[in-house]
Amino acid sequence: MHAWPASEVPALPGQGRDLRIHDTATDGPVTLDPGPVARIYVCGITPYDATHMGHAATYNAFDLVQRVWLDTKRQVHYVQNVTDVDDPLLERATRDGVDWADLAVQETTLFREDMTALRMLPPRHYIGAVEAIPGIVPLVERLRDLGAAYDLDGDVYFSVDADPHFGQVSNLDAAAMRVLSAERGGDPDRPGKKNPLDPMLWLAAREGEPSWDGGTLGRGRPGWHIECVAIALDHLGMTFDVQGGGSDLAFPHHEMGASHAQVLTGEFPMAKAYVHAGMVGLDGEKMSKSKGNLVFVSALRRDGVDPAAIRLALHSHHYRSDWEWTDQVLQDAVDRLGRWRAAVSRPDGPSADALVDEVREALANDLDAPAALAAVDRWAARQEAEGGTDIGAPGLVSRTVDALLGVAL
After folding, report:
1. Are residues 278 and 314 in the same domain?
2. Are residues 273 and 336 in the same domain?
3. Are 320 and 368 in contact (CB under 8 A)?
4. Residue 353's domain spans which residues?
5. pTM of the predicted model, to two decimals?
6. Where residue 166 falls among pLDDT bands split at 50, 70, 90?
7. Which residue, of 223, 248, 282, is where some domain finishes?
């Protein structure tokens, strides 16, 4: 599966700062010090509907992570999956009377178009669950050989008790985990499971549903968590720098994935930092496909909204915060974009050297994009009020905003 084209990232004078970011597992800040190649895995979409602002906010956060690392002169090895076979996709295809594979291709294509328009840097490896199945099957077989998986009526489950570190990503108690498991794709009430929290590794073939050859597992399809584990281990290995996604993935998805990988390899941890973006709401509820309260990136683009304004709207809220999408949020972003473009269109202006340092410091401090926006706002206000004589300043501001915030002025 191919990703989307990369926009050029301008080089800035000097060098960026190492990223300090909030780690869910320790519930505190960590300073990331990757080697020459920083490694990041971000969980991708289940392509049964278009990209909404909650998706965009998550991928915006991890685009900033990449940009901070690139500014430190590192390379970035970014991997993202597409869950192109799963219950929600099959259910939507049945509802709409379309082929599930066609629906997955259609929505993945639209996602690529949205990411391109928003100038999100693409992953080096963009892998669908279906194409990962040949690598998933041996991992499930190995977990079973290790005694960490068991059969239940033809399905294969992972035993969370096999991992002594289980629970150390989300740090939730068993009662809270059980509630979230039921809400987020698990089946804690299924009779016969060794532990209600045990997640599915391999779903045996069901009539009318797609299935694949699973070797000794029989025909079926993979569970959600093992999909990402197989892709991450194949392309990044263990103890990569950042495992990312929305805050609703901390449990069960990232918790279970970490346990799968740790039992498979005998190593700990799977990732050095687990980083989670907040939820975007609309009309008082989390924006989600199941609720139907969605604002789509593609719809805004069709209405003529500049994608740069959409990115500024996303940047105006700290990535870890939960926030509400409103018409005013978008209008404020449109107005800000207009002020910035007017400021950099002049032939000269006040010095921007300090601005570069301010934006770098803001983003290195747990991706504080609102502080970065405020720094550019101050420069633009000085430009409007006083002007300046530095002929290189407008261009430097434009390159800084492009390189570090992904916004083309």
Report:
1. no
2. no
3. no
4. 305-405
5. 0.96
6. very high
7. 282
